[in-house]
Amino acid sequence: MTTEERIRSVLGSSEGAEAAITRIQGDASSRQYFRVAGAGRTLIACHDPAFEGRNPEHYPFLTIHRLFREHSVPVPEIIASDSRLGIILQEDCGSLQLQDALAAAAQEEAAALSRQAVDLMVRIQAIPPSSEAVPFSLSFDMEKLMFEFDFFLEHALLGWFGDRFEEDDAARLRREFLSIARLLVRPERFVLNHRDFHSRNILIHRGRPVVIDFQDARMGLAQYDAASLLRDSYALLPDLLVEELQHRHHDALLGAGLSGERFEDYLHLFDLSAFQRNIKALGTFAFQIRERGKRSFEASIPPTLRYIQEYVRRRPELEKAGRILRPVLEEAEP
Questions:
Q1: What is the pLDDT of residue 16?
Q2: Do residues 90 and 62 make contact, with C-beta atoms less than 8 angstroms apart?
Q3: What distances in angstroms separate CA 102 from CA 194, 200, 257, 303, 306, one per listed residue?
Q4: Do both 62 and 108 map to the same domain?
Q5: 89 with 43: CB under 8 angstroms?
Q6: Are 235 and 281 in contact (CB under 8 A)?
Q7: How many domains does the chain have?
Q8: Residues 250, 155 share a domain
Q9: Bridge-partner residues for 47, per DSSP?
Q10: What percent of the chain has pLDDT over 90?
């Protein structure tokens, strides 16, 4: 059965027969998305092979969707789902990503949208842990952080940048990555993170942000999602606005009782988290370009390298890693 046939089956015989189904260009996901038009409405259909034959009660997307809805986090409504076919039908919240909204907005409007996104992030981070295995039993532990670092070593350092590095460079850099990861594993400070909270996973629908692609949520430092948003490879924010939003996030964490750290300590962990997050992003970009042929990710590599330069200059803990990465960091000089 084709994916289109699966979607029509979930829609039902009358609506399914008449519906116009159009593939939506995805990002770095293995899931397929379609816009379905018919019967006076449009829907978004997702086909996920990992959902096929699975108990819906234990499928992360649906579990976290319920959790977010319970805590007033705006997400698209689920219209129908069928685990036999691996199909989920959702409310169509449009196609205006925060990335594009920011690019088209005047300065103050862009700042207002960014503030809304920070407030939405805090709403997620304020969700208290419960007995749910997903997402609360998952975290940015050593295993997860090193998986992301190793993904970079394989696909970016020795893959995309392979003409400038050797296996010995990867081994030396991995030792530095281990040291950095140890600084980030602080379970006593962990809050719930979306895990991919960037401008392509926030839609602007009827003037408000709506979060999507949240199925990988897990516990981690509050700075992880903050770095994803404020040091986004797809949407570069002015430095003064970033500083304002860092203060906004820090103040909100204090106000919600989620943190008691000084702003200087917040910034320290922000830079270390952002370094790890941007390194992870480079691995993803390299993989998508080399293995999936998605050349559009090439444009995101230079700004990400420039971010990493900033952290290396500011934080002594990153100095050795920066020296090893110098051949590519120097290329990113503006």
A1: 78
A2: no
A3: 20, 11, 30, 17, 20
A4: no
A5: yes
A6: no
A7: 2
A8: yes
A9: 32, 87
A10: 91
Amino acid letter, 138? L
CATH code of residue 87: 3.30.200.20
Q: How sure is the predictor about 141, in pLDDT bands with cuts at 50, 70 and 90?
A: very high
Total H helices, total E strands in the chain:
13, 9
pLDDT (average), residues 33-37: 95
183-169-171-147 Cα dihedral, nearest 10 degrees? 60
Q: Are residues 134 and 33 in the same domain?
A: no
Q: In which domain, by residue range, is 29 found?
A: 3-91
Coil, helix or strand at residue 203: strand
Task: Summarize the confidence of residues 130-137 as an average pLDDT.
Answer: 88
Average the pLDDT over 8-33 and give the result: 84
Quick one: DSSP state of residue 139? B
Closest CA to 219 of 256, 189, 193: 193
Q: For 162-176, write each residue's pLDDT tens digit.
A: 999 999 999 999 999
* Token representation of residue 150: 């190793």
